[in-house]
Amino acid sequence: MLNTHKSPGAEMERLCAQYARGRDPALRERIIAGHLNIAAALAARYNGRGVEYDDLYQVASLALVKALDRFDPEKGVKFSTFATPTMIGEIKNYFRDRSRSIRLPRNSGAMLAALEKCVDELMQEMHRAPTAEELARRMGLGVEQVLEQLEMRGAVRPVSLDYTSQEGENDAPMEAFLGFEEKGYSEFENNETIQSAMAALDGQERELIQMRYFEGLSQRQAAERMGVSQMSVSRMERRALSKMRGQMEGTDGGTSS
Amino acid sequence: MEQRNACRAIEMKLPAEKDMLLVVRLTASGILTRCGAMLDVMDDFKIAVEEACSLLIAQTESGGELHLRFEMAPGRASFEAHCQGKCVSGADLRQQETALCILEALVTEARLECGDEGVRGVYLAASLGR
């Protein structure tokens, strides 16, 4: 087993040392760009636990920038070696800070909440993270149950509608799998209903409704086109709508003309 | 399961497919629990194991096989993975370096076994001391 494969990062390490001496902003950008692949790889590795990839990538990228600002080549550590644990730490903090945002079934939700509370308590008592067995003992559960709950922690956060599983080439976002109301049907129905209601109108009223609701003209524009006053148009429109409403409700809503 | 040098070991053979990563992760989780690992160590180890297997799967043509070995020793857990199968052409050195960087940050010891065609094996060890 060897770690001695040819390193494409050697040049980058030289740049990091150079940056530490001069703090050249252009060099800084180049170094960050050269290490974003690590941020991307980490975001991918922690993906699927209820936080979007883009958020994880952003958290890791910001940590990368912070790491570069703190990096001291005199310590004898490669920048990538220094920055990676920083990025991992920031991602873990991000997970820790996020609260659960959807409801689980009562039992699971309650057990998970109890488990998280128990983890916090044990950490405070022992000044270290507990083991699964210690957690199980404290909670009076089996170790398997605790492990199940731990695995479930990743399933309690909602997935974005834009999320694609990236397992295959033809994957569509989650949104594409949701049902939706077919607008065409209701448009067709509405059109039929309106056409039948308009049959109750006289020629001038029908022309007015056409201008107002199908061509989008204002009452003033319709009045100009019809050569009548806006007041007349307003009255005619009210009468026409009343007739149409009556027709749609199955009664004659027409009043005196 | 096999007894060797006071270590207890578990060996597995799996298809070298992404879908198998969950199986590997859950196995790692169970084994580290048996070792009495702290949750944060367990979490890091699981991520490292997944990263190692992903690297090997990415470099193996479909139909290949992953040979895994977990060892439990007092205060220490280790994991070894090898790929059996044809390599995809062109080793991605940048990907290997990134993977190694991540592995080294997550576990006590990480080594890649590199051949002409790319990474063919990964060794990881985590110290379980408290």
Could you characterize the architecture of this molecule?
The complex is a heterodimer of chains A (257) and B (130). With 257 residues, chain A is an all-alpha fold. Chain A folds into 3 domains: 10-97, Four Helix Bundle (Hemerythrin (Met), subunit A), CATH 1.20.120; 101-158, Arc Repressor Mutant, subunit A (Orthogonal Bundle); 183-248, Orthogonal Bundle (Arc Repressor Mutant, subunit A), CATH 1.10.10.10. Helices cover 64% and strands 0% of the residues of chain A. Chain A has helices spanning 10-22, 25-45, 53-70, 79-97, 106-126, 132-139, 143-152, 183-198, 203-214, 219-226, 230-248. The longest helix of chain A has 21 residues, at 25-45. Mean pLDDT of chain A is 77; it is low at 1-6, 99-106 and 252-257. Chain B has 130 residues and is α+β, with helices and mostly antiparallel strands. In chain B, strands 1-2-3-4-6-5 form a 6-stranded antiparallel sheet, covered by helices on one side. Chain A binds chain B through residues 1-9, 37-38, 41-42, 45-46, 80-81, 84-85, 88, 119, 128-133, 135, 143, 147, 150-151, 167, and chain B through 18, 26, 29-30, 33, 36-42, 44, 47, 50-51, 54, 93-94, 96-102, 104-106, 111-114, 121, 123, 130.
